[in-house]
Extracellular solute-binding protein family 3 (Desulfonatronospira thiodismutans ASO3-1), 745 residues
Amino acid sequence: MPALTINSAYRALQSCRLCFLICLFVVLSGILYPAFAQNQAHELRSGWYPDEPYQMQAGTGTAAEVTGLDIQIARELFEQTGHRVTFEPMSWAEILEGLKTGETDFLMGAYYEEAREEFAYFSKPYRTERNEIYYHKSIDKLSSLNSVQELLQFLQSEELRIAVIEGHAYGSEEFRKLMQDPPPNLELITSQGYEENLHLVVEGRVDLFVANPIIMDRLTARSQASGLVQKLGIKSQEIPVHILFSKKSISRGQLEEFNSILQDMQEQGRISTLHRDFVLPAYLSITTGQTWFAVLNLLGIAAFCTSGVLLARKERYNLFGALVLATLPAIGGGVLRDLFLGVDQVFVLETPAYFLVAIAIVLAGFAIIRYYDFIHDRSGTLAKKIDAFIENRLGSVFDRLFKFFDAWAVASFTVIGVGVALEMRAEPLWLWGPAMAVLTSSGGVILRDIVRADFNIEMLKQDTYAEISILGGIIYTCALMYTPYEISLGLIFYLTMFMVLLLFALRFFILWKGYMNPFQFGDIYTHPDTRLQQFREKEPHLWKVVSGYYTEDDESRAAPVHRSRLEEMHNRFLYLTGELKESLDQVAAEPLNEKTINNYRQCNARLEIAISLENNLYAFLEQKPGKGMQPSVDGSELQQLMHESLRTMIDTTAMAVETGDVMDFTMLEGLTSQYRQRFDHLRDKYRGRQKEHDDAHLKAVLQSTHKVERIIYLLSDYVKLRLDKKEIRAGSATNRKAQQAHVLK
């Protein structure tokens, strides 16, 4: 009995386990199979073919993605119904054939054709198109046609070869009938797409074809075939564009659902937004991709590179440093823009032209500067003639050219920045369009000044460059977004040219007039010049000492020197003035208080020594006989002796400051003492000759020796400062002036 009970219980347990497994299988089948079937039902298949900007492939390799206006509309439409869409590369004819068999579920961008109703449903129109006639330039008679009726009559009377895309429907009813039943004079040649049509016309195998101008204008511009292929200027009627759904796989109920969502997308403006996002960049790229625009854009880049070379000369950068200063303002802003927007390929990698222009300008600038220095060292007279020629003949020309290309750069970079933001569909465009415009035009210059460690970035303070770019970006972006006219190549071209010319004229006018930025923060009392005036009022004694370096008595006052003439000597003294000048500018920008005045005292004493040495050396080296005064032998001889001595002093000073070695400064200290005695001896020697011969030229040279003496005292103070590592005090400067007065007496 117990054994029987155990066996019965065991069999009952097995039966329960079997029932449990069967129930589990049924439950899982009920859950998983509908989900599997749902996934199968939720996938819609279609094909795509190159038809930019409606269908295209963006990116390369693993990052490649099918996109475009029609592709994006399809994705957003079917996403709202819970469907997943896949696109396989096919020709137009293959997609149509797939609709007949049910292998493909839908086709984007189709015109209505009665024969297609046998195998497909037509959605509501979701956009419209126009078609244009493109023909070989040898057919002159086409250019005289003014209406569609004249065109149809022409096609029925002339022997022509017309390219037609296999399975493609065309525009108006009359033209469609003409293509379906062509007269004997027309030969229809089948092709697979617009690109093949273009090649057939260029090769002379076809006379004309019908195409969407949004697609063909871009293809024509890219292929450089605009000289052979002409567009007929007859405005055709708008053609409704539908989605075709296969009757094999899509029900009428689904069609009604899709139509309802399409209508909602149209009413909400989503399709209009997508149309703008994909069509506008296509037209913009045609406009900005033309040769003349690219050439002027390169000239704007060349202007930026030239400014970088001049900065490298002024601040004693090496060859690589000059290349950095030249390339950053030219391409730095565009690189930052592309990185910010996540562009697949940064624009400088598309062509080496940008880098080659920068390299060429840097190398040419280096060669010119070194050759000028060589001439200056060998022949000061020839260098002066070159300076005079540049100043009198070429200076104004170069200045105008630089202003021209600077103005063009801000105009072209602004337009390009907005275009890239539009192409990358940065939303909201009203914000990112102007932002990318100013980043493209100004970002590189700001980067350059950051690399230079320049706290006084002019573009962020006095210049109007960035504000013009922002203003232009706002106007241009709003004009593109809210234009009341139908988008066309002509509209975009003229709008772009208007903006370029407007920004160019505004920037050039501001540069020409020298206007300062009116949007600076603060009032006039925050300007450094105003602070210096306040300093002069608060510290009159120190100001008198500082300003006293710039003048002598009436007979030997230092003459003003043109800024361009100071460049050659300024490089020798930049190591004396660079850091000190930055410190002074920084102090001038701080609030005026006791600490600021103390800092100013410390900086200014050192700075004025170097600046005065430079200015007065120039005043002496540029000394010329007075009006009506003939150079004399004694005067020229004394001037040459002092010129050579001063050169030696300048070279020795440069070496000492560059090395920072105590021995070099000790040698410089001895040299200044030695030349002080030498100048006293020369002055006594030639003063006697001047009195004897009443030599006016020699008298003028003797008066200029006062400046030489002043330079010696300045050098003495500078050497003492470096050897003792102490600050120059106002009292020592006052003592120096007293010593000068004693020697002059």
In short: Confidence is low (pLDDT under 50) at residues 31-41, 524-532, 545-577, 725-745. The two ends are 148 Å apart (CA to CA). Residues 627 and 725 are 46 Å apart (CA to CA). The longest strand covers residues 239-246.
